[in-house]
């Protein structure tokens, strides 16, 4: 993974921790994702994991419907690559 990928992972973790810290998300449910439109990659936090304890290696990286990175599998349907899923979505332009 390149430095842009690492930056995106850091950013999604920052927002996940911020949202959990403010009580805006349930710490063990739901996912946050960030779409890198240029690379066609979707970064997703794993379900069932406290957002306060996320690390970069836990973030699932999806491309063309397949997981290409991350040690933990996301619990969101793979349909996310093709249609809108119901979870917090942070879009990178």
Q: What characteristics describe this protein?
A:
alpha+beta, L-fuculose-1-phosphate Aldolase, 93 residues, five-stranded mixed β-sheet, Aldolase_II/adducin_N_sf, 20% helix
SSE blueprint:
Layout: H1 3-21, E1 32-36, E2 41-44, E3 60-63, E4 66-69, E5 88-92
Parallel strand pairs: 1-5
Antiparallel strand pairs: 1-2, 2-3, 3-4
Domain Class II aldolase/adducin N-terminal: 11-76
Pfam families: Aldolase_II
Organism: Pelosinus fermentans B4
What's this entry about, in short?
InterPro entries: Aldolase_II/adducin_N, Aldolase_II/adducin_N_sf. The protein contains 1 helix and 5 strands.
Account of the protein in words:
The longest helix has 19 residues, at 3-21. This protein has a single domain (3-92), classed as 3-Layer(aba) Sandwich (L-fuculose-1-phosphate Aldolase), CATH 3.40.225.10. The model is unreliable at 75-89 (pLDDT under 50). A five-stranded mixed beta sheet has the order 4-3-2-1-5, with helices on one face. The two termini are 19 Å apart. The protein has one helix at 3-21, and strands at 32-36, 41-44, 60-63, 66-69, 88-92. The protein is 20% helix and 24% strand. A hairpin with a 4-residue loop joins β1 (32-36) and β2. This is Class II aldolase/adducin family protein. It comes from Pelosinus fermentans B4.
